[in-house]
């Protein structure tokens, strides 16, 4: 797949185009230009490292939405086996914006649930751009309850701009479905590992992100509202989204400092979309480590810590005047 470059990555794009041109010329040339190609590749890698070492929160939000970033189904295909997708909430309908089902992770049965955005236009519409309706959250809860019944650990992958705000969704109880998930996940008697792999948008993300371990990929985001939405409300224009992104504190390192997440997962140079295989390996190692740790911990301890984490969201301290 030909890489897609973001606006701030244009210097990298220009170098990569030169490399492609030289490769094309080399096929028809008697001259050996492999050294020049290698030099440009090294320069491109160094430039990528330099750019990504100083990304602003606004730029990180762009990377989190990159169209070639790995989605839930990509992780399912790469690090899980024997995945059997389960559909429907048993009340209204199935919601393709959330996928979930039973799978094996290193031979162990797990329940995997996550948002799915879609790649091309047709799939994006089918998946509603990764914005779940109430039936999606109720499907997720049904699968979690099934996992609890059989003592199976739960792994969730979060990547959504937010819950779908349509009239039909509101009529079917969008806020109730999200609130119910928070309530039930806080007391599920099985380990829950949550990982934000792209966008973590508001309650739409939190509805499958109450867990014993909350991880974030290095260039993912997690916030109560998108920077554009925040800017539109505060300043009546989305053009000040970069200011809003800075104020919201949406980045993984910032949220780790605030104690809202547990671990920041390093991504390949240039982001997860640049090297899916490397990202999958890093994800697999992390999940292995965390699952092994939870296997040796009493469920009562996990429940207590999980509830305390949920109750600590939004806590703040005022300095004495």
UniProtKB/TrEMBL annotation:
<dbReference type="InterPro" id="IPR001095">
    <property type="entry name" value="Acetyl_CoA_COase_a_su"/>
</dbReference>
<dbReference type="GO" id="GO:0009317">
    <property type="term" value="C:acetyl-CoA carboxylase complex"/>
</dbReference>
<keyword id="KW-0067">ATP-binding</keyword>
<dbReference type="InterPro" id="IPR011763">
    <property type="entry name" value="COA_CT_C"/>
</dbReference>
<comment type="subunit">
    <text>Acetyl-CoA carboxylase is a heterohexamer composed of biotin carboxyl carrier protein (AccB), biotin carboxylase (AccC) and two subunits each of ACCase subunit alpha (AccA) and ACCase subunit beta (AccD).</text>
</comment>
<dbReference type="GO" id="GO:2001295">
    <property type="term" value="P:malonyl-CoA biosynthetic process"/>
</dbReference>
<dbReference type="GO" id="GO:0003989">
    <property type="term" value="F:acetyl-CoA carboxylase activity"/>
</dbReference>
<comment type="pathway">
    <text>Lipid metabolism; malonyl-CoA biosynthesis; malonyl-CoA from acetyl-CoA: step 1/1.</text>
</comment>
<keyword id="KW-0443">Lipid metabolism</keyword>
<keyword id="KW-0436">Ligase</keyword>
<keyword id="KW-0547">Nucleotide-binding</keyword>
<feature type="domain" description="CoA carboxyltransferase C-terminal">
    <location>
        <begin position="32"/>
        <end position="293"/>
    </location>
</feature>
<dbReference type="GO" id="GO:0016743">
    <property type="term" value="F:carboxyl- or carbamoyltransferase activity"/>
</dbReference>
<keyword id="KW-0808">Transferase</keyword>
<dbReference type="Pfam" id="PF03255">
    <property type="entry name" value="ACCA"/>
</dbReference>
<comment type="similarity">
    <text>Belongs to the AccA family.</text>
</comment>
<protein>
    <recommendedName>
        <fullName>Acetyl-coenzyme A carboxylase carboxyl transferase subunit alpha</fullName>
        <ecNumber>2.1.3.15</ecNumber>
    </recommendedName>
</protein>
<dbReference type="InterPro" id="IPR029045">
    <property type="entry name" value="ClpP/crotonase-like_dom_sf"/>
</dbReference>
<dbReference type="GO" id="GO:0005524">
    <property type="term" value="F:ATP binding"/>
</dbReference>
<keyword id="KW-0275">Fatty acid biosynthesis</keyword>
<comment type="function">
    <text>Component of the acetyl coenzyme A carboxylase (ACC) complex. First, biotin carboxylase catalyzes the carboxylation of biotin on its carrier protein (BCCP) and then the CO(2) group is transferred by the carboxyltransferase to acetyl-CoA to form malonyl-CoA.</text>
</comment>
<dbReference type="GO" id="GO:0006633">
    <property type="term" value="P:fatty acid biosynthetic process"/>
</dbReference>
<keyword id="KW-0963">Cytoplasm</keyword>
<keyword id="KW-0444">Lipid biosynthesis</keyword>
<keyword id="KW-0276">Fatty acid metabolism</keyword>
């Amino acid at each position: 797949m030909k890489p897609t470059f973001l606006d701030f990555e244009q210097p990298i794009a220009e170098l990569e185009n030169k490399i492609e041109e030289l490769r094309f010329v080399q096929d028809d040339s008697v001259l050996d230009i492999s050294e020049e190609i290698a030099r440009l590749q090294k320069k491109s890698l160094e430039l990528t490292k330099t750019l990504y070492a100083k990304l602003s929160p606004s730029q990180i939000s762009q990377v989190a939405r990159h169209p070639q970033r790995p989605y839930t189904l990509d992780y399912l295909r790469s690090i899980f086996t024997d995945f059997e997708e389960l559909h429907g909430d048993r009340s209204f309908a199935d919601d393709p914006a959330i996928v979930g089902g039973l799978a094996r992770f290193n031979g162990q049965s797990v329940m995997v649930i996550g948002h799915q955005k879609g790649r091309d236009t047709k799939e994006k519409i089918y998946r509603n751009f990764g914005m779940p309706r109430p039936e999606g959250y109720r499907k997720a809860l049904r699968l979690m309850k099934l996992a609890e019944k059989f003592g199976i650990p739960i792994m969730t992958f979060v990547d959504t701009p937010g819950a779908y705000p349509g009239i039909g969704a509101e009529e079917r109880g969008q806020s109730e479905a999200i609130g119910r998930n928070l309530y039930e996940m806080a007391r599920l008697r099985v380990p829950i590992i949550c990982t934000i792999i792209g966008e973590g948008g508001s309650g739409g993300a939190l509805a499958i992100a109450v867990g014993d371990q909350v991880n974030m990929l290095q260039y993912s985001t997690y916030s109560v509202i998108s920077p554009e939405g925040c800017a539109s409300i505060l300043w009546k224009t989305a053009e000040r989204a970069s200011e809003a992104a800075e104020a919201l504190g949406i980045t993984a390192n910032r949220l780790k400092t605030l104690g809202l997440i547990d671990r920041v997962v390093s991504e390949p140079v240039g982001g997860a979309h640049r090297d899916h295989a490397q990202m999958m390996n890093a994800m697999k190692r992390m999940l292995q480590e965390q699952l092994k740790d939870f296997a040796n911990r009493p469920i009562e301890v996990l429940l207590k810590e999980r509830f305390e984490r949920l109750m600590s969201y939004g806590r703040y301290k005022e300095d004495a005047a």
